[in-house]
Write a structure and sequence with these properties.
The chain is mainly alpha-helical and 247 residues long. The protein has 13 helices and no strands.
Amino acid sequence: MIENNRSILTKGMRDGIPIGLGYFAVAFSLGITARNSGFNAFQGFLSSITCYASAGQYIGYTLYAADATLIQLAIMTIITNARYLLMGFALNQRLSPNTTLRGRLVAGISITDEIFGITIARPGIVNPFYPFGALIVAAPMWSSGTALGIAMGNLLPLRIVSALSVALYGMFLAVIIPPSRKDKAVCVVVIVSFAASYIASCVPGIKDLSPGNKTILLTVVISSLAALIRPVHPEAAADASEEGGRS
């Protein structure tokens, strides 16, 4: 039986809860940066609910404090968040050909690193209501965390705030471990990705790239090699889609 949109939305909201908790902790520390850049709690909440991108927001806050122009801010934000273009392309391939433009837009605005991770890990065709369900839970917690970080300032020790953000890394592990245990090829790609990320942080030239550009470079290279070495045959992809459409 194919699940309806309401059921998919509910599942997305459920899976978005741990992401939101991790977001709240990370956004709290981001709020301290926003406060030091001259933002009040309402401005911090508004910037988070309309952007919800930690690296992009950090760049925005620091450039604002440095009196940068709007053009400079827009260019740096686009460069920092360019990796979402790759995520959008990958997610678009998993949507049903019958997905409307509105559905594709809903899926597009729902993309964050973590929401993309739990969405792309689902088997078969992706329903746009799933990532949107995760977003409507996680985004308010991200925005609230930013506002609270601004309001409370530096009342909490930075070590405690950093410790709280560990929950987000735990969520990432929960996303990649199950598929790695099921498929050895995925496991190898995950291990190679970890190793390549470390090497990229040491290689001259590459280590000086922004985190967003570095992610794009590694994603394109590793995914291309994986596709060449271990391609997914159309028959296997069709079988996975049929299994994912059943409840």
